[in-house]
């Protein structure tokens, strides 16, 4: 199914974006799918479990991580995208802030550019989005992964991020990106304290005021571990499920997750309850 059809469906039912980290150092599954064949096999498993989109990244953005060159990201992700797209034709997102990486990924089969810098880190990214006619995810982050958790501070975290994303939507549109191609992400865990993350999730419904699909990426993140006192990211599935159920009721359109099967069940059950009202 092409991405434009999927986004239309996202207005009727939440979509699931499965996370595929082709990296040696991601916070949750670093190194597990670093090999191209293993990466594609895992992507296929997520598709079978119910993923609508596979989000592929060749650079870890965990707190404290260092940047990876465009050339190295391309080396990691392009073979995976080419093989996955040729074998499944699925909807693929590229998780990168580099225009060169995004362009190569789209040429290989990706149709969404997931930019955690909301087109800020690379001046060429907005023209890449426009020239490839890709969908784009604009995410909020405070600082860079290497230092974003040092001392994050806001006036009002919800109001501040709403305004930031509104400004980035306006910027993208002013550069020729079509509004119907834009998705927003408040950036859970990217320069936020536990309290900031909880406030954003509690008020996630307000982000619909921006008039574009809303994506939430809270899967296995450290704030869940801190609240539940669980150090191992793979053991945070129940916390993830609670977030998904709440956010589903608040109308979130896309969930970016590691655990596709459990997410699908939570969405299906929550939706059934809501429809019975």
Task: Provide structural commentary.
With 277 residues, the chain is of the alpha/beta class. It is built from ten helices and eight strands. The protein has an eight-stranded parallel sheet with strand order 6-5-4-3-2-1-8-7. The longest helix has 19 residues, at 70-88. The chain starts with a helix and ends with a helix. The model has no long low-confidence stretch (mean pLDDT 91).
Strand order of the largest sheet: 6-5-4-3-2-1-8-7
Please provide the count of β strands. Answer: 8
Mean model confidence by pLDDT: 91
Spans where pLDDT lies below 50 across 5 or more residues: none
- The number of helical runs is 10
How much helix is in the residues?
40-55%
| Cα gyration radius (Å) | 17 Å
Question: What is the 3D form?
Answer: globular
How would you characterize the largest beta sheet?
A: 8 strands, parallel
Overall structural class, as computed from helix and strand content, comes to: alpha/beta
What series of H and E elements makes up the topology? HEHEHEHEHEHEHEHHEH
Q: What fraction of the residues are assigned to beta strands by DSSP? A: 5-15%
CA(first)-CA(last) distance: 31 Å
Concise description?
This protein is α/β, with parallel strands linked by helices. 44% of the residues lie in helices and 13% in strands.
Q: Could you outline the blueprint of secondary structure elements for this entry?
A:
Elements: H1 3-10, E1 15-21, H2 36-49, E2 53-57, H3 70-88, E3 91-95, H4 99-108, E4 112-115, H5 125-132, E5 135-139, H6 157-174, E6 182-185, H7 194-202, E7 215-216, H8 222-228, H9 237-249, E8 254-257, H10 260-275
Helix pairs in contact: 2-3, 3-4, 4-5, 9-10
